[in-house]
Design goal:
Chain lengths: ~120, ~110
Amino acid sequence: DAKTTQPPSMDCAEGRAANLPCNHSTISGNEYVYWYRQIHSQGPQYIIHGLKNNETNEMASLIITEDRKSSTLILPHATLRDTAVYYCIVRAGTSSVSGNTPLVFGKGTRLSVIA
Amino acid sequence: NAGVMQNPRHLVRRRGQEARLRCSPMKGHSHVYWYRQLPEEGLKFMVYLQKENIIDESGMPKERFSAEFPKEGPSILRIQQVVRGDSAAYFCASSPRDRLYEQYFGPGTRLTVT
């Protein structure tokens, strides 16, 4: 079972920031927060992951609260092509030894970017 | 660098037939995962393989399903004696050895059992 809770759906105006929340109150010390998204009928796409520090890459930013019980994925300037289901996943480790556990997908948040 | 390739993209089988789904990981990736997505549901892990080894098959149904990743060639997910409940999208993902935290997914094979 997924260890995360996400709102089922959200809307965002094109060009605005999309802030997708995720609760993971039972996260343990060695577990990372991962975000993937699935555009309709395609395979999921890796977005970003983090442990406790905020992370940023070319796709998004990840803000993790100090107690690590929740996080927010930020798409700074949402476009229509960002319409997708976004999955927040908690998973142990990133090393070659422990980072090979399967991803456990929940129901995710269906983000609709509106023109 | 080509992405993860899966074929066929669409497969129709009658009940009782066998389905063979193929996955070619990205170049240099030696770790392969199979996931299944039933209609209107999230993805469920099935099996994790490295070359010639099954590492974790905890998500595989006990009967009719098997997977392999030979030394040469693609990974194969085989479903014997398919039933209507096997109709789903089957996704393959691969990871590079030095970045196991990133899984790159293929476009999926949509299996329809009639």
